[in-house]
Amino acid sequence: MRKDPSNNMTDLAGKTALITGSTSGIGKATAIALAARGAHVLVVGRNQQRAEHVLAEIEDGEGSATFRLTALADAASAQDLVDWATEAGHGHVDILVNNAGVALLGPTDTATEADFDETFGLNVKVPFFLVASLAPAMAERGWGSIVNVSTMVASFGQAGMAMYGASRAALELLTKAWAAEYGPRGVRVNAVAPGPTRTPMYERFGEMANQIAALAPAGRQGEPEELAAAIVFLASDDAAFIHGVTLPVDGGRVAT
Ligand SMILES: NC(=O)c1ccc[n+]([C@@H]2O[C@H](COP(=O)([O-])OP(=O)(O)OC[C@H]3O[C@@H](n4cnc5c(N)ncnc54)[C@H](OP(=O)(O)O)[C@@H]3O)[C@@H](O)[C@H]2O)c1
Question: Which of 13, 72, 118, 165 is the most buried (most CB within 10 A)?
Answer without folding.
Answer: 72
